[in-house]
Design a protein that fits this description.
alpha+beta, Immunoglobulin-like, 4-stranded antiparallel beta sheet, 22% strand, elongated
Length: 274
């Protein structure tokens, strides 16, 4: 009889526990539904930040109410779809504007690309092409399609400098580059050297030239020996225009990447909402 009482008591305890948990579960589900209803109201009013806060609270507070959490996810995806669609529309508008701006600027530039070796072509100002400056010392600024800035330093003479770095000096100030990629060509008594500097190697040298373009700028080539010359006005003007072009190209590249990312995310959201 005692054993029977014990079993009955344990059975009653289990029943009470089940009833208690069921009651708690029902209360939690009711509360989760109330918050979801509030979120839907905020969504209809296009108060998306408030909606997202309410949806997040459902996930944080009621992790076991899976059915409500799934509805919360669906509502969040609808918000994200709206936001990505809106952003995509804005980005498309900005791309059109930047493409128009670029179209007017590139008229002064030659576009050079070897598809076999280059993923991105380069824009070189028409006054700064090698063919127009074959037998002189000069700095050739150019920008690639990503908006990255480069400078080619050309030395032409009857001796070798073996340039490794360059300095530019103006108004008692100077900037010195890091080492670049060096090449040399020899033709009888003539020496033609080139040093290519990317943005990291430039060490802000190109911006220094742009900032001081109204004054006299001295260039010092640094190698096994040094060599000094002064930038011509056309050279300085090319730096200013190439800098402006690189900014537009960088903006356009970034916007196109943003469009690509937003389009992929929209495709994923549409699949989730099907």
């Amino acid at each position: 009889m005692t054993i029977m009482k014990v079993l009955i008591n344990k059975l009653l305890q289990i029943i009470f526990l089940i009833l208690f948990l069921t009651s708690c579960g029902n209360k939690e589900e009711k509360k989760a539904k109330e918050i979801l209803s509030q979120a839907k109201q905020k969504f209809e009013l296009m108060e998306y930040n408030s909606t997202k806060i309410l949806l997040d609270s459902i996930h944080q507070t009621f992790p076991r109410i899976i059915s409500i959490r799934r509805q919360a996810d669906t509502l969040l995806w609808q918000i994200q779809k709206y936001e990505f669609s809106r952003n995509l529309l804005y980005v498309d508008t900005m791309i059109v504007d930047k493409e128009e701006e670029l179209k007017s600027m590139v008229k002064e530039f030659d576009f050079q690309k070897d598809s076999a070796y280059q993923d991105f072509g380069n824009y070189v100002h028409k006054t700064m092409t090698i063919s127009r400056n074959a037998e002189r010392c000069f700095l050739q600024p150019y920008a690639n399609e990503k908006g990255e800035f480069f400078v080619l330093s050309q030395f032409f003479g009857n001796f070798s400098v073996t340039q490794k770095k360059i300095q530019v000096l103006a108004n008692d100030l100077f900037v010195e580059s890091n080492e670049g990629v060096f090449n040399a060509f020899y033709n009888e008594n003539d020496v033609c050297e080139s040093l290519i500097l990317d943005e990291e190697a430039l060490n802000d040298l190109h911006n220094f030239i742009v900032d001081n373009a109204q004054g006299r700028i001295k260039v010092r080539l640094l190698g096994n020996r040094s060599y000094i010359y002064y930038l011509e006005n056309l050279d300085k003007d090319a730096f200013v225009k190439t800098q402006s072009l690189s900014v537009v190209l960088a903006d356009l590249y970034r916007l196109r990447k943003e469009r690509e990312t937003a389009t992929l995310k929209l495709e994923k959201l549409n699949k989730k909402l099907q």
